[in-house]
Design goal:
Elements lengths: L5 E4 H9 L14 H13 L6 E10 L2 E11 L4 E8 L8 H22 L3 E10 L5 E9 H34 L10 H16 L3 E4 L6 H16 L3 E6 L2 H17 L7 E3 L3 H4 L18 H15 L1 E2 L1 H10 L4 H8 L5 E5 L1 H4 L4 H9 L3 E6 L4 H8 L2 E4 H10 L5 H17 L4 E4 L4 H20 L6 H17 L5 E8 L31 E8 L3 H10 L2 E6 L6 H7 L6 E4 L9 E5 L9 H18 L3 E6 L2 H14 L5 E3 L6 H9 L7 E6 L17 E5 L8 H14 L8 H12 L10 E5 L7 H4 L9
Helix pairs in contact: 1-3, 1-4, 3-4, 4-6, 5-6, 6-7, 9-10, 10-11, 15-16, 16-17, 17-18, 19-20, 21-22
Amino acid sequence: MADWTYTVSVRSLCEFTAKQGSLDRRFTPSATALEGQAMQLAVLARRSPGYEIELPLEGQHGNLRVRGRADGYEADVNRLEEIKTIRGPVDLIPENRRALHWAQLETYGALIAADRGLDELELALVYVDADTQHETVLRDKLTAAALRAAFEARCRAFEAWAAQEAAHRQARNTSLAALPFPKGELRPGQRLLAEAVYKVAAHGRHLLAQAPTGIGKTLGTLYPLLRAMPLQQLDKIGYMTCKGTGRFMAMEALQALREAVPGKHLRVLTLVAKEQACEHPDKACHGEACPLAHGFYDRLAQARAEAVQAQWLDAPSQRRIALTHGICPYYLGQELLRWADVVVGDVHHAFDPYGQLYGLAQSQGWKLALLVDEAHNLIDRARDMYSAALSLARVREAVAAAPKVLQPPLRRLAGELARLGREQVEDYQPLTEVPEPLAEALQRVNVVLGEHVQNHPLEVGAMLEFYFEVLGLQKLLHRLDLHSLCDLQRTAGRVAVQDAPLNLSLLEPDEDSEPIDTGDVRDVLLSVRNIVPGHFLKERFEGFSSVTLFSATLGPPDYPRDLLGLPDDTAWIDVPAPFPPEHLTVRVANLSTRYEHRDASLDALVAVLATQYAQHPGNYLAFFSSFDYLDKAAARLALRHPELPQWSQSRSMGDAARRAFLERFVEGGRGIGFAVLGGAFAEGVDLPGTRLIGAFIASLGLPPVSPVQDQVRERLDAMFGVDHGYADLVPGLQKVVQAAGRVLRSVDDKGWVWLLDQRYRRPEVRALLPVWWQV
């Protein structure tokens, strides 16, 4: 490749060439991006009127183009500044991180000296404390010649890698431009989906794609986006999943696509969770404690070179390469994110407040396109990401574990929570704002815990974990608005924060579920429950080149558009089902599954199950709104029809028990499996052919009647108007359609779906069911 140019950011160049020594992931309190912006403004206010900020700079060295934005330049004193917002003393910043900051500042210095013809330049590395606004300034004065020499040395160290990357990108784009579909011909519905994905990628728009099971959505979205990659000059594609099973299917599809790429010029990376990749979970992440962190950056170059040559970087490959070179597999994967073409991982990497994929894409200026699988789950997943809770029991645990110096502010926080709990007239109380004494107590705990972890950087365990919890809660309280609900709830038992119902996905799955008995109040729970994650995600969607969200149950299109904060011009496609309508018989039973009618419904419900089974023996799934209802129905069926085989989902099923449940569904088998709607067996389960021939759904999937649900409905009505069903009917029927989707898995399958409630005859309910169902 004789003629090539490679563009690299100042940050990437310096991270590649200046990082050395050991990995050090010990906690040092850091500032948020918003705090960083605020501190830069505070610094600016103290500078002279001619102070320049955010200077775009660019330079060339051979085939390498280096560009970036310097924080600030003060011409009066010829000083270039790099501003870093921190918390706590500068001494806590690891030496190799400080060396990286200097490398960035020196590189900007070389660029501005060349641009403005300067002979020398004063460099100032400014650390600003986010809490006190105190500046610690480290200074140096260098000649333009010295800066240029350092810049050229850094470029020479990166040049071979840049040439390799430019060659790879050219080969990748050439191959992808002529990529054949690995399965021969696209299926009719798959082709419609693929065309829509390609078009939105070409125009930099977003897409909501409702596409039924059986058309091949994984290949139907990955293939067109890979074809669009060279034409649209995409840097990366992210395939984000809401459930772990989706990652396996994505990797299978990518393996088939990569085999079709001439020369296999496609780097595919799986993002692995830290707890799954960690080789030494009993050790802290720094060189003094973990052998795989010691000298990490000194050995990274060889591991990185081997990895990009391997190209197929699933979890086992990352582990093998990392351990060969004696470094941490998890952090090797984080480094490889910069050099992968396709990244497969959980949606939190793109949408969580601390998502690595989104953060890097913004800092590196990547043109990144996303595919989001099973996207109907994204609303609830995002609600979790932007929700938090703190219980009185959790604070009391912290008091018991804390050093004596931390106990007074923790006791005060516990006292304020307990007082509010006693004073509440009702067990549930929505709050428009946190009462001032409680807010002050929470703020004080954050301050003293922050100081404690600053002064004890080697400490891990209960206090650090609790600090993260209260810090996360306080950040959400600072941004509290209509998009989230704040409330105080007295509970019957000791509720730990991780067990608190933060959003609708964690509530009982049906409006007719039995009421919760509060009993004797022993705990108080303060919660921020996000209801409309679009407030937080809007900026994310604006930052991606293109996003396609696809699922068998996304409609109506306004529902995800409104709740996820998608742009108004987001496209919508409803792909026709590949199944002949006559292959699925859908029937409605004339009975009621409301809570108050539940016991009376059992005989009629069991009669429907037994009659259907007698007429068409085979394997069925029966879905219920709660385990209590499931248990009663299973017992009544066993009493009335003891000859009919049955098995049930239990409340605490491990992996082995789930596998055993599914293994009962064999080809030609017979029996009924009982499961809860919205649970492990209601989606993501593939039982083709005669492994499953029918489903019974004894619920509309509506959330339970509760004070929380009333508040959610009121909030959504206020934001989007009434009668939209966003709080109950739409998400409930999405669960129903997902469960029914277990029946037909291929175009040759035939089966039955019984909707066991007369409410399915209502027009507003029928309107939310698939149009091809002949109910």
